[in-house]
């Protein structure tokens, strides 16, 4: 790749970044400028689908997570994606032919489309509204962005690096926006509340010191005001940046990876989201252990990177005064989640029924007969029971206080798990169909609760069991497992980009145990990129094995001898 190509790639990524930022503004001059810019990006993609692909990921920053309706930014992104997809497909058909193209993508097309057709039939049988089914399916379709990624990236190291730069720009935009919003709107400042005329009023620390009725300190959670703050991009950025800074020998890449990882860590700490922090730290720890014991020349780098991560995290937590919040949330997690973690889903589902069964039998009779009056001989026993109940009153009060201390988020999600598990048991093989809904009770930041009909679960394996049954779970495991296990035997000598892909998908899989990430477009775009690079590498290896040798091609025309090599033109290299 020439310097001229690098300039064009940089311009495409920069232009898409500016368009995405302008789309985030209120409707005005910048917003309308973004519309014009997105139209120019589409025209650029028509002339060069490779540049359109590089612009696609930064433009995804402008998308609203799970948007309630299709806005201008969603239409602009869809137009760019459609042009890139069709242009890449036409390019592939011209270069490889219909049979070779079908052979390359037969497995993902057959498995995905076959499952969706079957699930559609099940959803219609379960009387799920067509609009709900379509809304549930649309995010999954973005996985097929793997087709243009595979077609346009190929096995060229330069193309893979530029794709990584494009995806890194999306991560940088998301993390940077969250950190900027948090400090610009002073969400990091603690506040206290008092009741004035029946209304809750916020006050600062100085006023709280003079008011004995003030409650606090409290902090707003950015996840309540910025939807992107729960995106899986944040823990993925922590891990990807750390892996790049550890594995690459280039100083610029080390600095860029470290900066990205630390910025994403700051964004994660700001959200106070435990599952996000745990998923990122777990994969970083796992990767560090493996690298430390298998690559001796990187041991010092691993240790220094871990020290930098730890020092930065501690300094950021105490510098912003959020140490009490994190300690409190982790304490709530141990009080609520650890007892649950030692129980199976079946036992969790019977907790409520067990409490009902423990009531005294004298209050009712299970066989429908009237309870006999208490005899005089039983009165001393009844008095003993009353004394025991009085002794237990303080214990009951303590239990109620413990219930208040428990985390509502954890308990509500356990309730979700029970619902999903019960629905799975009703239809264990093929599930209930995408778009099926259930009633859930949530709690707002002010402590008020409300009931909402939702079509997702904050645990993606359980969600796939609910909507797709065992078949859906197997497909979900295949989608996440294939990039993780690909070329596992060559893990010691693999290029950096495969290490990034493997650890990134592991992070997505772990975070998916705690959050409804699969319905986010960004999640599926990242998976599409991983699958695209993997399929391109697999296709290139297959072509190299079947390519004719020099002796075979000596008497074969040039046009015939080169039909199995990578297709190259003046603009980009593809498979």
What are the SSEs and their pairings?
Blueprint: H1 3-23, H2 29-47, H3 49-59, H4 72-96, H5 98-125, H6 130-141, H7 146-153, H8 157-184, E1 191-196, E2 199-203, H9 205-209, E3 215-218, H10 233-247, H11 251-271, H12 274-294, H13 299-319, H14 323-341, H15 345-349, H16 351-357, H17 379-405, H18 408-426, E4 438-443, E5 449-454, H19 460-485, H20 496-511, H21 521-546, H22 550-553, H23 558-561, E6 567-568, E7 573-574
Antiparallel strand pairs: 1-2, 1-3, 4-5, 6-7
Please tell me about this protein's structure:
The chain has helices at 3-23, 29-47, 49-59, 72-96, 98-125, 130-141, 146-153, 157-184, 205-209, 233-247, 251-271, 274-294, 299-319, 323-341, 345-349, 351-357, 379-405, 408-426, 460-485, 496-511, 521-546, 550-553, 558-561; strands at residues 191-196, 199-203, 215-218, 438-443, 449-454, 567-568, 573-574. By secondary structure, the chain is mainly α. It has a domain at 191-224. A three-stranded antiparallel β-sheet has the order 2-1-3. Helix 8 packs across helix 10 (233-247), helix 10 (233-247) packs parallel to helix 12 (274-294) and helix 11 (251-271) runs parallel beside helix 13 (299-319). The longest helix has 28 residues, at 98-125. The radius of gyration is 28 Å and the shape is globular. Mean pLDDT is 80; it is low at 351-405 and 549-575.
Brief descriptors of the model:
two-stranded antiparallel ribbon; 575 residues; 7 strands; mainly alpha; 23 helices; three-stranded antiparallel sheet
């Amino acid at each position: 790749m020439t310097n001229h190509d690098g300039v064009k790639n940089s311009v495409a990524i920069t232009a898409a970044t500016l368009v995405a930022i302008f789309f985030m503004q209120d409707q005005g001059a910048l917003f309308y400028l973004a519309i014009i810019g997105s139209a120019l990006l589409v025209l650029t993609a028509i002339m060069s689908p490779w540049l359109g692909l590089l612009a696609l990921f930064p433009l995804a920053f402008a998308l609203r997570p799970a948007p309630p309706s299709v806005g201008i930014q969603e239409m602009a992104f869809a137009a760019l994606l459609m042009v890139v997809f069709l242009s890449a497909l036409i390019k592939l058909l011209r270069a490889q032919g219909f049979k070779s193209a079908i052979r390359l993508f037969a497995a993902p097309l057959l498995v995905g489309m076959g499952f969706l057709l079957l699930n559609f039939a099940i959803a219609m049988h379960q009387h799920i509204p067509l609009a709900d089914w379509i809304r549930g399916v649309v995010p999954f379709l973005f996985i097929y962005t793997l087709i243009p990624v595979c077609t346009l990236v190929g096995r060229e190291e330069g193309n893979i690096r530029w794709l990584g730069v494009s995806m890194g720009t999306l991560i940088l935009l998301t993390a940077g926006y969250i950190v900027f919003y948090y400090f610009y709107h002073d969400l990091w400042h603690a506040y206290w509340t008092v009741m004035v005329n029946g209304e809750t009023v916020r006050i600062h620390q100085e006023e709280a010191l003079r008011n004995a009725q003030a409650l606090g300190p409290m902090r707003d959670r950015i996840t309540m005001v910025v939807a992107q703050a729960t995106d899986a991009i944040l823990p993925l950025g922590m891990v990807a940046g750390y892996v790049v800074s550890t594995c690459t020998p280039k100083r610029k890449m080390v600095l860029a990876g470290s900066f990205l990882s630390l910025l994403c860590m700051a964004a994660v700490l700001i959200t106070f989201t435990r599952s996000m922090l745990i998923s990122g730290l777990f994969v970083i720890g796992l990767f560090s252990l493996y690298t430390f014991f298998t690559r001796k020349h990187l041991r010092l780098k691993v240790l220094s990177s871990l020290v930098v991560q730890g020092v930065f995290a501690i300094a950021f937590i105490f510098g912003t005064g959020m140490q009490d919040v994190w300690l409190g949330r982790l304490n709530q997690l141990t009080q609520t989640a650890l007892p649950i973690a030692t129980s199976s889903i079946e036992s969790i589902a019977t907790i409520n029924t067990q409490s009902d069964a423990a009531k005294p039998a004298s209050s009712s009779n299970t066989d429908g007969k009237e309870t006999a009056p208490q005899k005089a001989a039983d009165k001393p026993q009844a008095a003993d029971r009353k004394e025991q109940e009085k002794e237990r009153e303080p214990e009951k009060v303590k239990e109620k206080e413990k219930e208040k201390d428990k985390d509502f988020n954890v308990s509500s999600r356990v309730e979700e798990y029970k619902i999903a598990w019960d629905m799975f048991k009703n239809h264990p093989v093929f599930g209930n169909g995408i778009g099926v809904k259930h009633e859930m009770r949530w709690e707002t930041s002010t402590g008020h609760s409300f009931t909402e009909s939702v079509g997702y679960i904050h645990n993606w394996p359980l969600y796939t069991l609910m909507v797709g049954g065992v078949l859906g779970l197997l497909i979900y495991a295949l989608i996440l497992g294939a990039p993780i296990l690909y070329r596992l035997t060559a893990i010691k000598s693999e290029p950096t980009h495969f290490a990034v892909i493997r650890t990134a998908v592991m992070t997505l899989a772990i975070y998916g145990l705690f959050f409804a990430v699969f319905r986010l477009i960004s999640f599926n775009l990242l998976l599409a990129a991983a699958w695209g690079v993997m399929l391109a590498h697999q296709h290139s290896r297959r072509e190299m094995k079947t390519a004719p040798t020099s002796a075979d091609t000596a008497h074969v025309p040039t046009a015939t001898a080169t039909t199995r090599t990578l297709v190259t033109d003046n603009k980009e290299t593809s498979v």
